[in-house]
């Protein structure tokens, strides 16, 4: 693929703009500046650098972000900055979107992609992809609450009760809850439905993928092929 097309595809601007960047000597491959925009490169395993920053060639950009509180999962946020502002501009230009939404005050594992099929597969309730949350609650978590969460609770505007796939008290006011749907404020509403209240919420896992322990709050990194496998959806 021509170098200027590669840059354009990775969000570095228009074809003309990418051509100018290349001609200005801002792009390197394997440590050497390449100033010919039309050079044809094999894309398999290709890593190119723009202004000294390495970019892997990726047909789809999928990444994992450790979401901080105070960010909205929307391209057009209303009251807080968008999580997309935590990413480099080129990635935003590619049109990446969060997979499902975490509330502004929820922290933890957020996947972001421009792979529409992956986004659909993981967000669709039909696939029943488990999402594991750790909730800090206002009141002590008791056995009756766990029982009700596992049996199913009726939420406003939902025709059927929704049951947690797993629920356990992991501290006096700490609850680990697994849900397979992605309803609006689902965890907060389920916990409220059993007479408690979520004071802080953190997503620990999606499918078989846990938030990487070394990923600092606010940081992101590419999802590896092995991690992609753990999501439990096919490509
Ligand atoms: N459930 C909620 O209530 N909030 C979230 O951010 C995610 C799940």
Explained architecture:
There is one protein chain. This protein has 235 residues and is of the alpha+beta class. The protein is 22% helix and 26% strand. Strands 5, 6, 7, 8, 9, 10, 11, 12 and 13 form a 9-stranded mixed sheet that branches. Bound molecules: uracil. Uracil (URA) is lined by residues 102-103, 106, 185-188, 201.
Features:
Alpha-Beta Plaits, 7 helices, nine-stranded mixed β-sheet, 3 domains, alpha+beta, four-stranded antiparallel β-sheet, binds uracil, Structural Genomics Hypothetical 15.5 Kd Protein In mrcA-pckA Intergenic Region, Chain A, 235 residues
Task: Give a brief description.
The protein is α+β, with helices and mostly antiparallel strands and 235 residues long. It has helices at 3-9, 15-23, 89-93, 116-123, 143-151, 186-193, 225-230; strands spanning 27-29, 32-33, 47-50, 53-56, 62-67, 97-98, 106-113, 131-137, 166-171, 174-179, 198-206, 209-210, 220-222.
